[in-house]
Design a protein that fits this description.
alpha/beta; five-stranded mixed beta sheet; 5 strands; about 10% strand; flat
């Protein structure tokens, strides 16, 4: 069961001839003890699930704070599910991540229904009073559901925002928006990035489905002493797959062009200017892919990295010099989309979690901010929270309340340390 769950293998794996042969080779006596599928699903799996659940619950009990990430997704059978993941530090201060549940949603996804579902999950795992933040996409229903949980902040998923920034920009058409470019068509004759992507997609599809095309490409790679690389197909749900597709096309540009010229029924070839556009837009998309990868880490917290990464992406975009009009239009659109979605990310009144966590991170402090006043505003917010917390501690402690000298010294050291930190 550990093997099946850990390696994501089907339960029928135990019945495969190859698996039974290797078991027989290692110790034929065990063949008689391999559990049946019925025993596996009705006895062994529930037992391991319960023992694992107890271990996770114990770790959640030992932790004072739990962060939650959640998402609603749809299966191939059109069934909706809600997955809830918990993030905690164990007693050794190592960040641990657990998928608590994947619940099937049987009603309309109203805010009240999602709220009730989340509350039931939190109560089952006994973390209702430990949840300090919930990260989801920016759907109106899930935001409204979390708003009903008084005191638990909702943090919008930055990776989801980045996805919207890029997917919206990739629909660019030169001249479709006056803020993008002034002319109705690029001087290169290519004015629709979506059409260019479809053309690239058709080339990849051809070489993946055509035995002749695939074989000719492999032969050309050997002839040119190039690595045995394959073209990559993009998928509609992941924008960075389009970037990976374009990068691989550029890598295989020479052998690909030679093969397409030799094939009678091959796909439509890319024009020289289309290659220039592809090479122009790849550097624009690369920073977004790097930022998404950095924010996808499970072994380290990523909240404090958002402001520095947003600033880094903006600097990278503004430093790019584009050679094609479509590249200029895409750059302009990406910069605009970043501004629309992240322009208030440093403001403590709008995004307190981002600004405070960045200031408290010794790698960044105030250096990561574009506006130093907003950094000072976040520091003041931290000072106020610490002062209120210390004041409450003094009022609730009889010894400290009656011995005024000690609290005065206590305050002095706290603020001295704060000045050193900041």
């Amino acid at each position: 069961m550990d093997m099946i769950a850990g390696d994501l293998q089907p339960i029928s794996y135990l019945e495969n001839n190859g698996f039974r042969k290797i078991v027989s080779f290692l110790d034929s006596r065990y063949l008689e003890h391999i559990p049946s599928r019925r025993t596996l699903t009705r006895k062994i799996m529930p037992d391991i699930y319960q023992s694992t659940k107890v271990k996770v619950q114990q770790m959640l009990i030992e932790s004072n704070y739990v962060a939650i990430t959640s998402d609603i997704w749809t299966s191939l059978n059109a069934d909706s599910f809600l997955t809830v993941t918990a993030h905690v530090y164990n007693t050794n201060y190592v960040l641990k991540t657990f998928v608590l549940t994947t619940e099937k949603l049987n009603k309309n996804h109203t805010a009240q229904y999602l709220y009730e579902t989340l509350i039931e999950i939190f109560e089952e795992w006994k973390i209702i009073n430990k949840v300090v933040a919930i990260v989801t996409d920016s759907g109106a229903n899930i935001k409204a559901a979390i708003k009903k949980m008084n005191g638990i902040p909702h943090i919008p998923c930055t990776a989801h925002k980045l996805n919207l920034v890029v997917t919206n920009a990739l629909k660019i058409q030169c001249g479709a928006d006056e803020s993008d470019v002034d002319n109705n068509i690029g001087w290169d004759g290519v004015n629709d990035l979506n059409i260019l992507l479809k053309k690239c997609r058709s080339i990849v599809t051809f070489f993946k489905k055509s035995e002749i095309g695939h074989r000719c490409l492999q032969d050309k790679l050997k002839q040119l002493s190039l690595p045995d690389l394959k073209l990559k197909q993009d998928v509609s749900t992941r924008w960075n797959s389009s970037l990976l597709m374009l990068e691989r096309l550029v890598t295989l540009k020479e052998p690909l062009t030679c093969v397409m010229m030799s094939l009678k029924d091959g796909p439509t070839m890319l024009l020289p200017m289309e290659w220039r556009i592809i090479e122009d837009i790849i550097p624009l998309l690369t920073p977004f892919n790097l930022m998404t990868t950095e924010l996808s880490g499970e072994k380290y917290p990523t909240l404090a990295m958002v402001i520095p990464l947003v600033r880094g992406v903006n600097i990278a975009l503004n430093s790019k010099i584009m050679e094609t009009e479509l590249g200029v239009a895409l750059k302009t659109k990406l910069i605009k989309n970043m501004s629309d979605r992240f322009n208030l990310i440093e403001d403590n009144d709008v995004s307190p979690c981002f600004s405070i966590s960045t200031v408290l991170d010794p790698r960044f402090k105030k250096v990561a901010f574009t506006n130093i006043e907003l950094a000072n505003k976040a520091i003041q917010s931290i000072n106020n929270e610490l002062a209120a917390s210390i004041g409450n501690e003094l009022m609730n402690n009889d010894y400290l309340r009656t011995h005024w000298l000690l609290p005065t010294t206590y305050y002095f050291h706290i603020y001295a340390n704060l000045n050193i930190i900041f």
